[in-house]
Design a protein that fits this description.
Blueprint lengths: L16 H4 L6 E2 L11 H13 L9 H15 L8 E4 L2 H12 L5 E4 L10 H6 L2 E3 L3 E5 L2 E5 L2 H8 L2 E7 L11 H13 L3 E5 L20 H5 L1 E5 L13 E5 L2 H13 L6 H10 L5 H25 L4 E3 L6 E5 L9 H8 L2 E2 L1 E2 L10 E5 L4 H16 L2
Bound molecules: pyridoxal-5'-phosphate.
Pyridoxal-5'-phosphate binds next to helix 4.
């Protein structure tokens, strides 16, 4: 049994960006990594490599690709040939490579806002237009949910070269339904738009929810989709920068590999080793416990906010360790991120970085100990009360 109540000191004993960005008295609840140690089998693999002591060049082995393919089969019954798997130096690099292939100054990148801030950088990095399809926001009491606006999606997809899907969604915690995925895919295929499905959070499922990879829905959709997965969020190894692109169409796969090779996007050996262990199944017991703990934190957060900050609206994420809070109905003037940093010593993620719809919102990372989560919420409650 892992005790997730115990979290290592990250401020003094590591160079964690999350923990060193703000001053000592600030509780960091922003960047998307968790405060927990990675599962023991991964740490053991890495220790062994360090003890061996030679840090030479290593590349993705056929065994690693086989492990990734086997995981897709085990989790979803999705049959992936190992040679369809390409290692990438993280998912952000992976989606930038896709954009270099699929987008042009006339055919941009379609995103569903508010969405992960790095999605907003593609337009700058590749020099292509960004097309937004904002969600429709629904409010029930203090609980928020978001739905696809199909009219906007349909209008925007016509101008796109690539649709960058975030599923499960950061920061909204949505797991898209099969029907929604089919409808999005159908519109993309009809308009000759490549689907790039960022599924980095796909194993961080709460409430026993199920996940279906976009590319598994049909052979036709698979042919038009690049799937991006990684062990980084699930097993808390994001600093090792290792992810995978799965591309079933041979020609598209070759183009993608050529681009990866041209950019020399080599994954470090520690990342490859961690991925091999993470996807081998040896950490799945740990993952079951982690999900249970995260669900406990999510439930606590929703209950706490509902009871003590009733004017604050929030999502109930179905996946991820990220929640989305709306302060537009509170007395906070200006950015709630600034407000809580200044008045509560809590550093959340500024909602605005996820898109214009994020104004007046923050994203809160609950991938930490119950104690630290409670401390953060207490600080926020007190600051709000003082206005
Ligand atoms: C949806 C999504 N994609 C990609 C990433 C980052 O991936 P990487 O660090 O592998 O580039 C994150 C991190 O928060 C994320 O939430």
């Amino acid at each position: 049994m892992t005790d997730f109540n115990i979290v290592p000191n990250r401020r003094n004993l590591s160079n964690s960006n999350k923990w060193i960005k703000y001053s000592k008295n600030v509780l960091p609840m922003w960047l998307a990594d968790m405060d927990f140690q990675s599962p023991a089998p991964i740490l053991k693999t890495l220790h062994k490599a360090v003890e061996h002591g030679v840090m030479g060049y290593e590349f993705p082995t056929p065994a690693l690709k086989q492990t990734v393919a086997a995981r897709m089969d085990k989790l979803y019954g999705w049959k992936v040939r190992p040679e369809m798997v390409t290692a990438v130096t993280g998912i952000v690099s992976g989606l930038s490579v896709a954009a270099r292939i699929a987008c042009t100054p006339k055919r941009g990148v379609l995103v569903q806002t508010p969405v992960y801030n790095e999605f907003h950088e593609v337009k700058n990095n590749i020099g292509v237009p960004q097309l937004n399809a904002p969600f429709v926001k629904k409010v029930n009491g203090n609980i928020l949910s978001y739905e696809i606006d199909w009219d906007i999606f349909e209008k925007q997809v016509k101008k796109a070269g690539m649709f960058l899907l975030c599923n499960p969604h950061n920061p909204l915690g949505i797991i898209f339904s099969r029907n929604d995925l089919l409808r999005m895919a159908e519109l993309c295929i009809r308009n000759n738009v490549l689907i790039v499905s960022d599924e980095i959070h796909s194993e961080l499922l709460l409430d026993g929810n199920k996940f279906t990879p976009m590319a598994q829905l049909s052979a036709e959709i698979a042919k038009n989709t690049i799937t991006l997965i990684a062990p980084s969020k699930t097993f808390n190894v994001p600093g090792l920068f290792c992810g995978f692109a799965i591309i079933t169409d041979k020609e598209l796969h070759e183009r993608y590999e050529r681009e990866v090779s041209r950019l020399s996007l080599h994954v470090g050996s520690m990342g490859l080793l961690a991925a091999q262990t993470a996807f081998s199944g040896n950490c799945d017991g740990w993952l079951i416990e982690l999900r249970r703990y995260l669900k406990g934190n999510r439930d606590f957060l929703v209950e706490y906010v509902t009871e003590h900050m009733p004017e604050v609206r929030l999502t109930i994420p179905a996946a991820t360790y990220l929640s989305w809070l709306d302060f537009t109905q509170t007395k906070i003037e200006g950015s709630p991120f600034e407000f809580f940093l200044k008045n509560a010593n809590v550093a959340a993620s500024e909602g605005r970085i996820f898109g214009r719809e994020g104004e007046g919102h923050i994203r809160l990372n609950f991938g930490t100990s119950h104690k630290l989560l409670e401390q953060g919420l207490e600080r926020m409650r007190k600051a709000l009360k003082k206005i």
